[in-house]
Design a protein that fits this description.
It contains 13 helices and 15 strands. By secondary structure, it is of the alpha/beta class. It folds into two domains: about 5-205 and about 320-400, Zn peptidases (Aminopeptidase, 3-Layer(aba) Sandwich); about 210-320, Alpha-Beta Plaits, CATH 3.30.70. The radius of gyration is 22 Å and the shape is globular.
């Protein structure tokens, strides 16, 4: 077997789901992400791994027999719309490279070991971040999953059936519930490593974060004949709420984002009848998020009242501050060197979702731009290889 490299594998998938601006849109169980899944299965099969696609749409590539107390590594292949090339695939690819190199070196794991691809980590298709790991760990029930509808209108059970999966089998997965640990490698989504001049870091924690949906309703009407005092335009309180979100973040020293707005019916010469916006808020401490979001909601209600509109808020997801496992972190430090940088992150990950179920840890690879979820996201070939080497060293230690 020729030794695989992360950059060569990244090049193999570089055209899949690529947009004209160089960004990627690989939405869970849609054709580009399905193409990536097929690519993964082919590569893992080439390595002699045994493929299992589970009831939660996660793909497992087992080295030897599946079993309890397994060492798991992997990440996701889906992206946000217009995302970067590395967020997700880098972790999957480095895991494949680690396996290839361990096989080349004649390593024989003495524990069950699998590379896992988790479904809809971004939540960009079904609106629930870390969908696959939530389902596998029992954090989201089958009934909850059945209620999810993709943003393209397809109910989750139908998408499952279309992919050849039985939605009635969705549920907690023994392979996850009884695993010994999960290590996820990921491109860094910030400039921490670039500022330190180092290629690889060990993650310490994921900062708390949540997503909320605000549905504003007003009264649709004619853009030319409806006098200003007679309008109940829901777009105006949305605008005020977005500005309030920015101001609140600046005051609290945290981050808020409104990156998605739907205006109905969406006509240039029609005053909107409804407008929905999604708010994402993250901070060092959970109580800061709560305080900031409550303030924004208060402003939204006042703005809705002022414009003769109505607003309903729904929390769509919440992830508390998640510290990665101390024992694993120390083992990684021993393997990679005590001076390896350690960083926290504002981004959610499957490793954080699974942290309540098993010891989890993460490795970050330097991203010179610090940008993510956009085409500017990057990592040099050398750093990708450094990531793969670090992951291999850690996994090799864990499967001993
Ligand atoms: Zn990711």
């Amino acid at each position: 077997m020729t030794t695989w490299t992360a950059s060569a594998l990244l090049a193999e998938i570089a055209q899949i789901g690529r947009n004209d601006d160089g960004s990627y849109s690989r939405l869970c169980l849609q054709h580009d992400e399905v193409a990536l899944r097929e690519w993964f299965v082919a590569k893992a099969t080439e390595l002699g791994l045994t493929i299992v696609t589970d009831m939660n749409a996660n793909i497992w590539a087992w080295w030897g027999q599946p079993g309890p107390h397994a060492v798991l590594t992997g990440s996701h292949l889906d992206s946000v719309p217009g995302g970067g090339a590395y967020d997700g695939p880098l972790g999957v690819i480095c895991a494949l490279v680690a396996v290839a190199q361990m096989k080349d070196a004649g390593v024989e794991p003495s524990k069950p070991f699998a590379v896992v691809v988790m479904a809809d980590e971004e939540g960009a298709r079904f609106g629930m971040p870390c969908l696959g790991s939530r389902l596998a760990s029992g954090k989201l029930s089958k009934d909850g999953a059945h209620k999810l509808v993709a943003r393209d209108g397809q109910p989750l059970p139908e998408a499952w059936r279309q992919a050849g999966l039985d939605p009635d089998l969705i549920g907690p997965d023994d392979a996850v519930l009884h695993a010994s640990c999960f290590i996820e490698l990921h491109v860094e989504q910030g400039r921490g490593l670039a500022d330190l001049g180092r290629p690889v870091a060990i993650a310490t924690a994921v900062r708390p974060h949540g997503r909320w949906r605000a549905e504003f309703t007003g009264q649709g009407n004619h853009a030319g004949t409806t006098l200003i005092p007679d309008r109940h335009d829901p777009v105006l309180p949305v605008a005020e709420t977005i500005l309030a979100a920015r101001q609140a973040a600046e005051q609290a020293g945290c981050v808020t984002t409104v990156g998605r707005i739907n205006v109905e019916p969406g006509g240039t010469n029609v005053i909107a009848s409804a407008a929905t916006m999604w708010l994402d808020c993250r901070a060092e401490e959970a109580q800061t998020v709560t305080m900031v979001v409550e303030g924004i909601q208060k402003t939204a209600h006042e703005a809705a009242d002022k414009h003769g509109c109505h607003v309903v808020w729904t929390r769509e997801s919440w992830t508390d501050r998640t510290a990665f496992d101390d024992g694993l972190r120390h083992r990684m430090l021993q393997v990679l060197g005590e001076d390896t940088p350690q960083l926290s992150t504002g981004a959610g990950h499957d490793a954080a979702t699974l942290a309540a179920t098993m010891p989890t840890g993460m490795l970050f690879v330097r991203n010179p731009t610090g940008a993510s979820h956009c085409p500017a996201e990057s990592a040099s070939d050398e750093d990708c290889e450094a990531g793969a080497q670090a992951l291999r060293a850690v996994v090799e230690e864990l499967v001993k």
